[in-house]
Each structure stands twice: as C-alpha cells, then as structure tokens.
Specification:
The complex is a heterotrimer of chains A (121), B (509) and C (446). Chain A is mainly α and 121 residues long. Chain A is built from 3 helices and no strands. Chain A is flat. In chain A, 21% of the residues are buried. Chain B has 509 residues and is mostly helical. Chain B has one domain. Chain B has 20 helices and 5 strands. Chain C is built from 17 helices and 4 strands. In chain C, the strands form 2 sheets. A two-stranded antiparallel sheet of chain C has the order 1-2. A two-stranded antiparallel ribbon of chain C has the order 3-4. In chain C, β3 and β4 form a beta hairpin. In chain C, α5 runs antiparallel to α9 and α14 packs antiparallel against α15. Classes of the chains: A mainly alpha (121), B mainly alpha (509), C mainly alpha (446). Chain A: It is an enzyme of class 7 (translocase). Chain A: Its main location: membrane. Chain A: InterPro entries: NAD(P)H_OxRDtase_bac/plastid, NADH_UbQ/plastoQ_OxRdtase_su3, NDAH_ubi_oxred_su3_sf.
C-alpha cells in the first residue's frame, strides 16, 4: 500500500477547487451591474426583511438534539465499519462483542425514543 | 487479514465494573419504560443493589492480580482498593442523592435545559426531580472504577470521559439557585473539555515517544526510546495537566469553588469524595507505573505543584464566607497533601489510599450536614447565616464541630491519623520539604475550620438564623457514616492501614 | 485486479482521466436537467422544453449561458467571505467523490494498462461518505452567510436532514462490507462477480444453488434502505424539504445568483449522480453486465462495461425524476420519523441478522449454528413484534370545520363594520347604487 494511490484524488480535488474558484471569481465581471438597493436586501417575497438580532438568531433546540444523536450513531458506524471489513477473521468473538455493543446503543436509543427525543413536534 | 489476535478476557476481573455498568443500562431502560410513579423506588433499589453487588464482587476478587483485555485493564491491589473505596463512598453519597424529605421532589429538577427563571423553570419547581440522576451516578461511578484500573492511557481517557460527562450534567440539575447551578455545569464542562484535550494531546505525544499507550509499555519505552526527550517531557506535562485538573491542583483548581458551590450539594459531595479518589487513583497509577523510572525529571515540578496547591488552597480557604466554597478550597488544599503522596511514589501509596478514604468520609458527612441548614430559599450556605446555630441545634453543631476538627487534623480524628500516616511515609521517602510545607499549611488550614466552630457556638444568632431541617433516614445514615468513620479511623486506624498495606504496590508488568 | 493496480498511472494519464470525468459530469448534468424537464413534462401531460435544438436538447445549454451572464449579487447583510466560499465547498466535495467511482475494468489507454477509474484507496467508500458529509458545509454556510431568514431555515433543515439520513445510509452499507470484506470500490465490484453457492440443509435434504453476486439481491433490505436514504441525502423530492419552494422560496440558495447559484445547482446534480453511482457500485455489480448480456463472454471486458455502468446510473436518474413527478413532499415530522424510527432500527437488526447468518456458516458445530441462527431470528422477531404501532387516528368528536380543526368562523358570519370604516362612511357621501350591500363589503375590507 502506498500513498501514490491518493495522488489522483488530490489532483482532482485541486482541479475542482480551481474550477469553482474561477467560476465564482469571474461571475461579477461577466454579468451586468445595475445597482438597486432593494436587490441587496434579504429576499422575503417582497415584504420588509425580518430584522435578525446581532450575532444571529436562536433556533429550536431540536436541531442541536438531532446533531447530538447523529454523533452517537456516527460513532457507532465508525465502530461498525472496521468490524464489518474484518468480520470473517473475527468470527464468533466479533459477533458477540458487536451484539453487546449494538444492544448497549439500543438501550440509549430506546430511552431517547420513549422520551420523545425523536419526535419532531 | 487473518492474523488478528483476539484478546483474552478475564470476566471475573471485570465483573465489578460490568455489574455497575449493567445496572446503569438497566436504569436507563427503567427510565424508558417504568411508569413515572414507580421510577424513584425502582431506581434507588436498583442503584444500591448494583453498587452492593459490585462491592461484593470486589471483595471476592480481593487477591486478584491480573492484566486483561490486551492490557487495557490492570486489576491489582491498589486498583481493587480504590474501586472498593469509590463504590463505598458512592453508596454513602447515594443517601444524599436519594433524599426527598428535605425538599419536595428531591434536590434535583426534572429538566436542566430550561433557562433559569423562565416560565418552564418555574413550572418544574414543584415537580418531582429527574430520576435519571441514578443511572447517571452509576455511570460516573463505573467510569471512576475503570479509571483506577486502566492499563493504558486510551482506556484511561475513555474512563475519564465516562465519569466526567455525567458529572457535568449532574452539576446543572440543582433545584434551587438554577442560574448558578447552570453556570457551574457550563464552567465545569468547558474547563473539563479543555483538560480532556490536554490529556489526549499528551497521550499522542507519549505515543510518539514510546510507541505505545500502555502504561507498562511506556515504562519500558522510556528507557529504550531514541526519540527526543522533549516529546516525553511535553507529553508527560500535558497528561499531568489533564489529570491534575480532575484532582483540582493549583493552578488547575479555578473551577473547584464555583462548581462545588453551584452544583447540587449531593453531587458536590459525590465529586469531593469519589472524583477525588478516582483522580488520585489515576495519578498514582500513571506516575507509579509509567513514569517511575523518570522520577528525577518530574518530581521537582510535581513537588512545586503540590506546594502551590497546599499553600494557595489553605490561604484562600481562610478568606471564604460561604461554607461550600470553604469546603471547596479545603478540598484543593487536601489535593495538595495527596500530591505529596504522589510525589513520594511507592513509599506513600498505602497512606495515600488511607487518606482518600478518611477524607472522603469526612467530606461526605460535612456536605450532608450542609444540606440540612435551610431557609425558605433552600440551603443557607453563607457563613454569616450559620452564626449561633449551636444555641438552637446543639446536636447538629456538635457533630459539625467534630467534622471540622477532623478536617483540621486534631488527634482522635481520622484527619490526624491520615495526615500523620501520609506525612510520615513522605518523610521516609525523603520529601522533607514537602512535609514541612504540608504541616505548616495544615496549621493555616485549621484556622477557617475553627472559625466555623467559633461561629457556631460563640457568636450570637443573627435575626434570620436558618433552621436545621430534620432529614430522612438516608441523610442521617450518611451523617452517621461520616462522623463514625472519622472517629473510628482516628481512634483505631490500624485495621484499615493493614488493608492498604496488604494491597501492595501497583502492578507494573 | 486488486488495489495494487492503482497508483501507477503516468501523470498524463491521470490528467486525461480526470478531465474525462470532469467533462462527463458537466455534460451529464446538462443532459440531466433537460431529461428531467422532458420526463416530468410527459408525466404532467405537457411537452417540456422543445424549442432549442432537436427535442429541445440545447435548452439547458442556453440556460447555463444565460445564468453565467446574470448579475452577481452580494446581499448587504451577507457574511462576505463565507458567502463566497460556500459554493466552492459544495463543488469541491461533489467532484472529489468521483475520484474513486469505478467505470470499468482494466483497459489499454495509449498503450498503458490501467483501470477505468481515477484511483482507488483502501477506504474508498469512506472517501465518498466524507465528501457527502463535507458537502453539507457548503449548504449550511451558504444559508447562514446569506443573512436572510429563508436561506437560514433551509440550511438548518438541510443539515438536520442530511445528517439524519447519513446514519441510515452509513448503516445500510455495513452489510456490503461484511460480505465483500473490503471498503475499496473496485474490490467491492470484483466481489460481486462471484456467484456464491448457497447450501441449505432442510430436514436432511441438501439444497445447493448459486445466487447472482449482486448485493442488491443478497442484501435486499440494505439496498432498499440505501435507495431511500440516498434520496434523502440529495434533498430530492419527496424529501426536498430544505428547498421546498412553496415554503422557503429556494431554501439555502435563495440569495445566490449567477454563477454562484450555478455552482450549487451543479453540485446538487453531481451529488445525484454520485449516490446513483455508489448505489450501482455497491449493490448492482458496478460495471458488470446485467444478466441477459452477461451471457456474452466479452461483456465484462474492454470498454463495454462503461456502457453497462452508465445505463444503470441513468436508470437511477430516471427513478429520481419519476419520484419527483409522482410523490408529494413529506411533512418534516414524517420525514424525521421515517429516518430515525424506521430506517435506523431496521438497519441495525438487519446487520445483526446478516452477521448471525454469516458467523453461523463458519461454525463447525451444528448446535452453535442452530443457536446463533435461532437467536438472531428470535431477536428480529422480537423487534418486529415490539415495534411500536403508529397511533391510530381518532376521529374527532366534533366535526372538523376546515383548516385542520382550528377554530373557523361560520360561513355566514356577519362582520360588523369597524369604527374606522364607520367614521369614513359617515364623512363620505353615499353612493346612489348598491347601498344595501355596502355595509357588508366594506366590513370585509376592514
């Protein structure tokens, strides 16, 4: 295994970045520029824009909750992937261990479910 | 692909931790499925049952000395002793957590996330508190148990997080004075997260130096590594910062007074007794097992930290006007004494363990008594409010006086025997400077304790002296345990000293 | 062919491959936009774009050019730097994922033997997942930096949605890794070429048969879950809540115009191609020829596989369009419930079932075998049995008077005129006609 396998990926990444950078940079120069104050305001279907408090507005705690749950399950996935790849060599031991792990996560999952953490209003 | 070595697992050695973790998981299921009215009873019995079962398992294991799960866990004499100490102190502090007579619905709120003084917060004032505190406590205790027996730094980090996260949450659950409680939780969380980051960074550097994260591996690697010594020094320093933060050593102590004051008093008691035991268990293991061979490099630094901790803790304690803050600074100073034990390495392991038990019981008793002094606003923790309590409540004041004298290190209390044992073993390990500073600072530290005693008995009562509430059996049992152990260890310390002597050194192979 | 085949290409070949993929993606996107409009048009009984070029093929090209020549607006309230960077992040991630998508087997390009794939790494599938995960940053930052309400809401919804479905997506491919024993895309495609023999012993009878190696057949539940969550992951109908035009105008890109908007648009369509290509690679045998063609021995060699691969990808693109043409948008709570309460537990149980069956085939001991299979079946049964039923809809006691039970005034309500209207009326001369109904009409206005 060598790092040379990664070189094309890096090249593609660089080219894509350059492409995007180029497009976004030239956009103001090839388009027309007709100043109009209303254009530069936040678009809210024609009504006066809602003023937002400085530092951004607060949004529902639900989003934070979802983000935290995501992290829990993402960590679970992180553990599942290498286990799955090496499954055949881990055999019965790996199966039982992962069973215990999934059951443990299920305990937390059940708690969140029963407490309404997964309901969206 | 097929050369994966499956680690051998000694389930008997892990049994105490598995029991406590399992009980915590069952506790979560109880939260999910049991009807609301039943939860409290089920949780309390489940928690106590789990802890007692864990204790029994530890006693059965008492002679075990083994390294298992591929070196992740090292069960040895001091480790088992610490686990037992944490479980016993945990059972005792559970009496405070489960107390529901002093305050309608217990010392905790149902939902910590309500903004302080908001409508939702007001509404939950009369609701029964969250029963999640019991599984959380179990997780914290299980994490501490793992912390004391982890055989490598990564397991140690996981254990550190497992016991820290529930504590952060518990800190924010106080029923009264919500804002200060939430502030405490946030402060503890932010600083704790920093400390964890330091710890992890240290682990990374040490891995770079020694090529392994196992404690015994580092012990070997330290001698053979060809890497630059800066890696070792920096890694060790960062690791120590992470650990010293949990132990509340100066200059990493700043969270202690605020968190101790803001957290619900039962949780403060849990932190003062169990977290201290776990943090020093970890410190003792790391320094005795992994870094014993490089002791010359770090001993002067740690000695400086110990001196600073003792001096700053005891001097600042003098200036406190709040009983919880006073106990917090006294806990900082006590961390300094324990650090003397860490610096003295193997010579003082036994007396450090003894100290942890003695201090833990005294501090549990003291915080249990703090929960009793109340007025309409909840606990009255300001010292001026305590003036003249001795007139109205002589029994309370007598017991509190006894505990204060114990902290001050008066003979016939555990405070004296534990300090004596610790300092004499440190003296034998040639840490004479530390011992002298320790003795001097404990003289200074005696002053605030005696100030409280004077306040209780000799000052005239103020206009609005709070009342001393009558608690349920649980808190009474805690106070009794605290006072009794303080007394017994002061009069007849030898049986516990024998046990810690039998525990022997840390397993370093 | 394993992972060793990669990383040896001369640099000019790398560049050629990359440019080819670049062109392929942009042309496909343009084609896809035309395709989508035509097909949706057909589904809605209208012709769709048919003016420019044969069958309106050049419509998208014209649109793209027009878009580039539009005014580029930077809103006053926008966070300038972030607003500028967001579309770049989107595009970066969208393109990079294609570095590991296999188009075909090893062929000879200008005398160099090389696989039809830019590169492959041991964790290729993770690279794709990472790209889709990082792509969310483009959306969230774009929406947040616009300094406007609709984009912020769209961005938040989008973040919640993508991370919710990423869990389901990530879990659904665990079973694939288990069977293929690898996370590299080329090896997963290779492993689907074998037809694993299945032995079943039922009541003493030995049944031997070969099943096709496509994981879509072996792991049907995983495949279905992947399909569902890939639609959620790409913000497409019926899961297009972040861009619900009837609720949020355009979602996170409301404030974007000109080429910056085009970047988001392009990234979104490339992401559709990416998930389709991943689905083909993981579950439908990648570039391997489908059944009737695979009888022809040369089907899986040379340049032909590109054709099979593209064919399969375009089937998925048609499914995307089809879904958009037929399905109404889900409500947000329904959508989250599907992700968290259905797909995730289903996934975990399915993983355990697959693991149990696979581990039991390794066992020599018959009793252990039966025990494991029995235990797994019991577990799955228990989960299905105890899966909470949906709450039955209870008919409300009083009749719903419209607007979902909200209090609604009766239809024949007489609205008394407001004091202000009365005052105006009093000062105004009465019109000579229609005075009887006047009170009513002005009353409604007030």
């Amino acid at each position: 295994m060598s790092l040379s396998q990664w070189v094309p990926l890096v090249v593609l990444f660089t080219l894509a970045t350059l492409f995007a950078l180029f497009s976004v940079t030239i956009a103001p120069y090839i388009g027309p520029r007709r100043y109009n104050k209303a254009k530069l305001e936040a678009y809210e279907c024609g009504i006066e824009p809602t003023p937002t408090p400085p530092g951004g507005s607060r949004f529902p705690v639900k989003f934070y909750l979802t983000a935290m749950l995501f992290i829990i399950f993402d960590i679970e996935i992180v553990f599942l992937y290498p286990w799955a790849v090496a499954f055949d060599s881990l055999g019965m031991f790996g199966f039982v261990e992962m069973l215990l792990f999934i059951v443990t996560v299920f305990v937390a999952y059940t708690y969140v479910w029963r407490r309404g953490g997964l309901d969206w209003d | 692909m097929n050369d994966i070595q499956l680690p051998a697992i000694d389930y008997a050695a892990l049994l105490p931790m598995l029991i406590v973790f399992g009980a915590a998981c069952v506790g979560i299921l109880v939260e999910a499925f049991a009807p609301r009215g039943w939860r409290f009873v089920i949780q309390v019995s489940l928690t106590i049952g789990g802890l007692v079962a864990g204790l029994v398992a530890i006693i059965v294991n008492r002679d075990l000395e083994i390294t298992t799960i591929g070196g992740a866990v090292t069960v040895d004499g001091p480790g088992l002793f610490l686990q037992g100490a944490i479980i016993i102190l945990g059972i005792v502090s559970l009496g405070l957590i489960a107390e529901r007579r002093l305050e309608r619905g217990g010392p905790f709120v149902a939902e910590a996330a309500h903004a302080a003084n908001s409508d939702g917060d007001k509404r939950q004032e009369r609701e029964p508190g969250a029963t999640e505190v019991f599984p959380l406590t179990l997780f914290a205790i299980a994490g501490m148990m793992l912390f004391c027996v982890s055989g490598d730094l990564l397991t140690m980090f996981v254990a550190l997080e497992v016991f820290s996260l529930p504590l952060y949450l518990l800190c924010g659950l106080a029923r009264r004075r919500r804002l200060i409680s939430q502030e405490a939780a946030l402060k503890y969380f932010l600083l704790g997260a920093f400390a964890s980051a330091f710890f992890l960074y240290g682990v990374a550097l040490l891995y770079g130096y020694a090529g392994t994260v196992s404690l015994t591996g580092i012990r070997e690697g330290v001698l053979q590594s060809e890497q630059s010594g800066i890696l070792l020094a920096a890694g060790l320093a960062l690791l120590a910062i992470g650990l010293l933060f949990k132990a509340a050593a100066v200059p990493f102590h700043v969270w202690t007074p605020d968190v101790y004051q803001g957290a619900p008093t039962p949780v403060t008691a849990l932190m003062a007794a169990c977290t201290k035991a776990a943090a020093f268990g970890g410190l003792l293991r790391v320094f005795n097992v992994a870094f014993e061979t490089t002791a010359w490099d770090w001993q002067p630094v740690l000695a400086t930290v110990a001196i600073l901790t003792m001096v700053v803790g005891s001097i600042l304690a003098v200036a406190q006007t709040d009983i919880k803050r006073l106990l917090a600074y006294s806990s900082v100073a006590n961390a300094g004494y324990l650090l003397v034990g860490v610096v003295s390495l193997n010579g003082a392991v036994g007396s450090s363990l003894f100290y942890l038990i003695a201090y833990g019981f005294s501090v549990l008793g003291a915080f249990a008594m703090v929960t009793l002094v109340r007025d309409s606003e909840g606990e009255a923790t300001h010292l001026s409010r305590w003036a003249g309590l001795g007139k109205g409540s002589p029994l309370f004041s007598a017991l509190f006086t006894f505990l204060m004298l114990g902290f001050a290190g008066i003979p016939l209390t555990s405070g004296f025997t534990s300090k004596f044992a610790l300092f004499s073993s440190a003296w034998d390990s040639d840490q004479s400077v530390l011992v002298i500073v320790g003795v001097l600072s404990s003289v200074v530290l005696a002053f605030p304790y005696l100030k409280v005693v004077v306040l209780l008995w000799l000052n005239p009562p103020g206009e609005e002296t709070p009342t001393v509430s009558v608690p349920s059996m649980l808190t009474r049992a805690v106070i009794f345990a605290g006072v009794a152990v303080t007394f017994v260890l002061g009069v007849a310390p030898s049986f516990l000293l024998d046990i810690v002597a039998d525990a022997g050194p840390f397993l370093a192979k | 062919m394993g992972l060793d085949a990669f990383g040896h290409d001369p640099f000019w070949l790398v560049i050629i491959k990359i440019l080819a993929v670049f062109v392929f993606l942009i042309v496909s996107t343009i084609l896809m936009i035309w395709f989508e409009r035509r097909v949706v048009g057909r589904m809605q009984h209208r012709p769709g774009p048919n003016r420019y070029g044969p069958f309106g093929l050049l419509q998208s090209v014209a649109d793209a050019l027009k878009l580039a020549l539009k005014e580029d607006i930077m809103p006053t309230l926008a966070d300038k730097a972030v607003y500028f960077i967001a579309p770049i992040i989107s595009i970066m991630c969208a393109f990079t994922a294609w570095a590991v998508i296999p188009f075909g087997p090893e062929v000879s390009i200008f005398g160099v033997r090389s696989p039809l794939q830019i590169t492959d790494v041991p964790v290729a599938v993770l690279v794709v997942l990472a790209c889709s995960g990082l792509g969310v940053y483009g959306i969230v930052l774009g929406g947040w930096a616009s300094g406007s309400t609709y984009p912020l809401l769209g961005a938040l919804r989008s973040a919640a949605q993508v991370i919710s479905y990423e869990v389901a997506l990530g879990l659904s491919i665990v079973a694939v890794f288990m069977l293929s024993g690898s996370m590299s895309t080329s090896e997963i495609v290779m492993s689907q070429g074998e037809n694993p023999p299945i032995q079943l012993s039922l009541l003493g009878m030995e049944l031997n048969f070969n099943v096709p190696g496509w994981y879509a057949i072996l792991l049907l539940p995983s495949f279905i879950i992947f399909m569902i969550s890939m639609v959620g992951e790409t913000n497409r109908a019926p899961f297009d809540l972040p861009e619900a035009e009837s609720e949020l105008v355009g979602g996170f890109h409301t404030e974007y115009s000109s080429l910056k908007f085009a970047m988001f648009f392009l990234a979104e369509y490339i992401n559709m191609f990416t998930v389709s290509a991943m689905c083909v690679t993981l579950f439908l045998g990648g570039w391997r020829a489908p059944w009737p063609i695979s009888i022809w021995g040369e089907a899986n060699t040379g340049w032909w596989p590109i054709l099979w691969f593209l064919g399969k990808v375009w089937v998925f693109m048609f499914v995307f369009v089809w879904l958009r043409g037929t399905m109404p948008r889900l409500r947000y709570d329904q959508f989250m419930r599907l992700g968290w309460k259905v797909l995730i537990p289903l996934n975990l149980v399915w993983i355990l079932v697959v693991a149990g069956v696979r581990v039991s085939t390794q066992q020599e001991n018959g009793t252990t075998k039966t025990l494991v299979i029995g235990g797994v079946v019991l577990l799955a049964g228990a989960v299905i049995l105890f899966y909470p039923r949906r709450k039955q809809y209870v008919e409300p006691a009083t009749a719903d008077l419209g607007l979902g039970g909200f209090p609604v005034p009766p239809l024949d309500l007489k609205v008394p005129p407001s004091p202000r209207t009365k005052k105006i009326e009093a000062t105004r001369e009465k019109a000579s006609v229609g005075t009887d109904s006047k009170t009513d009409t002005t009353g409604e206005e007030g």
